[in-house]
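Q: Joint fold for the lines below.
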Amino acid sequence: MTVKVEVIEGGIPHNKIMIAGIVSTLVCLYLTYLNVLTSTEMFSFFGGFAVIAALIWGSHTIKVLCSYGIGTGVPSAGMIAFGSGVIAMLLATKFGIMAPMVAAVLAAIIGFILGYVSNNILNMKIPAMVQSLTEMAIVGALSLMGFAALMTGKFTFDALTTGQVTVLGMALMTHQQSFIGGCLIAVAFLLGAIAIQHPFNACLGPGWQQDRMLMLTAECGFLSMIVAAVMSFALISTGSAIISLIIAIIGWAYTYKEYMVLSKRDAAAWLDAKPIPEVEGH
Amino acid sequence: MSAVAAKPAAGSAMNPTAMAVGVVMFLILMGICFFVYPVGIMPLLLIVVGGVLIGFGVHFVPVGGAPAAMGQAPGIATGVAMLAAGGGLAGLFGGAWAAAAGQDPLVVVITGGIGGGLMMAITCMMVNFVYVFGMGIPAASGKVANDPITGDSQAEYKSQGTEGHGLPFVSFVGGVIGGLFAGAGGTLIYLELLEVYKAALPTVMQITAAQALPIAVSAAGMFAVGMFLVNAVLTAYNITGTIEGPHDPKFKRWPRSVVASAVASALCGLVAILIVAI
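A: Joint structure:
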């Protein structure tokens, strides 16, 4: 165990990121409810935005927690975030339109108890532990709900467990072709868990810069959104899935370009290496 | 409190007050389950047993972390979360396969344990293979003078400035035992949740049992994975990252982990059972 090795110098304070994160995630999740109001599935892509907003907040929380040198590696923080988040999220889907709120509250309770357990029973004694685990459980739950909304257009239990399959022009109800019944949730789980832990794991060190890490988070989020948008072809109408996919690809290309610019800015020196030239005549 | 003054130091000390609070929390959570959904009390108890098995089992696994990757500490060169996920999920798949084949619950749990143990045995074997033939280092423990099982002396093989390296025999055995416990625990959680969902989902959702099966399997599997990771990471916090195996002094911290896993599993299990209760 080591003492805190890094301090946040400059940049946006964590509380501001936290408040912005939770507000924008909840707003984006509720914007997917436009699907129900307008009887379309066009607004599913807001689920992807909710994922990215939650991930940006979550990766900064991981930075706050893992700066203390908890000794277990950064990925473990992403795993406990989604491990506790998935439990809260699945129960919260039972509450209909209240689901995102309930997910946040329930995840906060689970995260708080897990934080107490690790800080006091396991004697971690890290000042940021309780708050960080609480935040990360909320991030895990809301990101999974965002993935659910992105892939199915809705976030209620019935919608996540019921799908439609067309046989000879007839639409039949099925439970196998759904977010939970088809276990797409497992893919969403790992897409989110990897996207949340990677940015700090990749950017940590003496040259850590907040804007670079958060840009990488957005890039990882859009990358996950591309995969999730491809998977959404199975569950929502093709047009809506294409909208999500195009938005994800544009977002990914933009954030990737920005991240490269920031990386070059922070690098001591960089060489724009070209591929090995193919010299003829050998 | 400033970050530097806080001095986070997870020693081997127990915190009796927090342990008592943990036991009380555990009893409250079980009580909530008893009043809200009495049928779920036995499954919840077995889920807690599964969680405790995971938490206890992970202590046996030789987790080396980054120092092990550089050959400066014994163990498998990755973090607890990854190792536990690998061993435990392999067990979970094995157990789920046995459950789908309609086996007796005891057989299912043992199959899960064997799956996890087998995965860890293969991992330990290949890790030692890479250490010995790839990195050219012998297996030597830094924590004990003689291997507790074979009695081989360790000091002659230990390089100066390291805490030992490679995977001594006792760590190998510890890894397999840890895989057995963790795999069995993960499978037990999955099996209990599956039984609860298979029994309750058709009535809750008003569909036939065959229609409910994919939802039950998927939800139980997802909850089992979530609970598995929570328990594994809590244990990782308990051993602060690295441990050599059952002979490591850190192994004596297991009572803390048992209480922590019991509280965490009761909490997560309660939430998972509530999904069919409300």
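Q: Anything notable?
A: Chain A touches chain B through 53 residues (CB under 8 Å). Residues 238-266 of chain A form the longest helix (29 residues).
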